[in-house]
Structure prediction request, 223 residues.
Amino acid sequence: MFRRIALLCALVLGMGMSSVCQAGLHDHPTVAVMPFKNKAPDVYWESFGDYSGQATESLISKLSARYDVFNLVDREYLQDLIEEQSLGMTGLSVDGPEVGRLLGVEYKIYGSVTGLTTKENHVSFGTYEGDSNFDNTQHRVFAHVTLRLIELSTGRIMLVAQGDGASTSTNTAVGTLISLGTKFVSPEQAYNAIEKAITDAVYGKQGLLTQLGYGNNDKGGKK
Prediction:
């Protein structure tokens, strides 16, 4: 309760005030991770919102493991606080720069699925008379993820990280499907590829931590 009262006081008293100092990217800055968005072309995924939360939590989990790099702010807690105290009536939004600055957030990370495609391979075996007794289709889904690190005080894009992932399924998809162009695959397979792409976007050659000069999965300091 005391924490909430103190936070509310900071919000009210700090309205209109600018941040005094800005931590550099290598000075353990305070960062908020924003919800993932689907920006992949030619993709119809009605239930992406459900998997957007999983993708966001996956990214938060990976970044929070590197507590020596970022100080992460809990976006959901801030949203609950704003709604509970009816601060939304004042025009405050957890996604707005005012709340971020007042709470010490210096950077935001925006994640997007910018590519989602699939390749299909048919495997069929039959008797010498030509009667097929086995027919299977292999789907391989490819995902591309982009992470943008934005400086809150200026809106500048400080860093763009990218990652790729793939998932293979040899089962015939049933139930709710998503459309990737003219092909259909299960949401689970698509998300599996996205999850791998997120890992690559954090630790890979064009990953966030790699570009900042930090190691891969180890929790050591800057290389």
